TrEMBL record:
Record Pfam families: Methyltransf_11
Protein name per UniProt: Methyltransferase type 11 domain-containing protein
One Gene Ontology term of the molecular function aspect: S-adenosylmethionine-dependent methyltransferase activity
Domain Methyltransferase type, chain residue ranges per copy: 50-108
Annotated organism of origin: marine sediment metagenome
Length: 108
């Protein structure tokens, strides 16, 4: 049975459960992952970042917290996950519903 705090539109979200899990080892692994993503983005000198498959926007949130310069946007097919991220103010960056196989952005 879905937990109302960990679900939206009656669906359980593994990604949401992963990020809200209080397990210290899991928290450490997520922190390590976030730091690596930010490090790679900085090394690449990216001025625009698209988090394709962003879910609720937790990785984008970490990029904001680490003051990663540039334009950041999230896209995910799961509009309920995007809505949860917006409702809980996970990120202030734009989140759009899109299929990563057919993104509504020009190639660059």
């Amino acid at each position: 049975m879905p937990n109302s705090e960990n679900s939206a539109a009656g669906h359980d979200y593994g990604n949401l459960q992963k990020y809200l899990n209080p397990n210290p080892l899991q928290r450490w692994l997520l922190t390590r992952f976030h730091r690596r993503v930010v490090e790679i983005a900085r090394q690449a000198g990216a001025s625009r970042i698209l988090d394709a498959g962003c879910g609720q926007g937790f990785v984008i949130h970490q990029m904001e917290q680490d003051d990663l310069a540039g334009s950041i946007m999230g896209a995910d097919l799961d509009t309920a996950a995007l809505a949860w991220g917006r409702a809980h103010e996970v990120t202030q960056q734009p989140l759009t519903g899109a299929n990563i196989r057919r993104l509504p952005f020009p190639d660059n």
